[in-house]
# Entry
Amino acid sequence: MFNAQQHSPSRSQIRKSIRNARKSLTNLEQEQAAKKININFFQHKKLPKNTRIGLYLSNDGELDTSYLIQSLINKNHQIYLPVIHPFNGATLLFQRYEKNSPMTRNRYDILEPQLNCSHICPLYELDYLLMPLVAFDQDGNRLGMGGGYYDKTLARYYREQMQKPELIGLAHDCQQVEKLPIQAWDVPLQQIITPSKFYQW
Ligand SMILES: Nc1nc2c(c(=O)[nH]1)N(C=O)[C@@H](CNc1ccc(C(=O)N[C@@H](CCC(=O)O)C(=O)O)cc1)CN2
Ligand SMILES: Nc1ncnc2c1ncn2[C@@H]1O[C@H](COP(=O)(O)OP(=O)(O)OP(=O)(O)O)[C@@H](O)[C@H]1O
# Structure
């Protein structure tokens, strides 16, 4: 495990080192991790019918969500993916994703659904938000790609202590660090699922 306390690395140093670590995983390791996360998720979460789940399409060595998305769709749950807000460019909208949804690439070359306002779900109507992350620590703190998209999107949710959605991080085991240097706007996670562990705070 990366020992953040001993070397006191900055957020950007941790970001760089963990992004390299997850990008070095082989295709086989990624595939095995994706299958394990699928099993691990359903072992820990018993979903009522038609659960609304915010997810993401993997990029940059992130934990591959494709098996999990397929399983959730097969069980008739509703999947929503992040779309970078077309006007403010700083927060995320969550839009319904189905097998034939038209997709487009955002400014980071990540696939997102083509904006259709009638398919957007307000954040507070999602039951779960499964979030990508670069690094997490033993207190459930999350470090992302550095755009602040999730933190800005969740700012009101955190301030007003909303009940929904439940925030769950998905990560490879190698993305865990001992302690992250945190910032005032960081929104901690309630659970983190890795291929081998389930953390809850
Ligand atoms: N799969 C996935 N989708 C996501 C996120 C994510 O972390 N993962 N996001 C979570 O917020 C948002 C996108 N945020 C991102 C922020 C920075 C970079 C990135 O690659 N930055 C480059 C610099 C690119 C540039 O400025 O042109 C880099 O740091 O190398 C990617 C995504 C929305 N969708
Ligand atoms: N609630 C907020 N209000 C205003 N600015 C914010 C807020 N949250 C984050 N920011 C800004 O966004 C920038 C990036 O934040 P941070 O490094 O925490 O992103 P991240 O968590 O790594 O990325 P992401 O949430 O996109 O995965 C910071 O410079 C910060 O100024």
Notes: The helical segments are 4-7, 11-23, 27-44, 66-74, 149-159. Residues 13 and 109 are 23 Å apart (CA to CA). The longest strand covers residues 78-84. The chain has a mean pLDDT of 95.
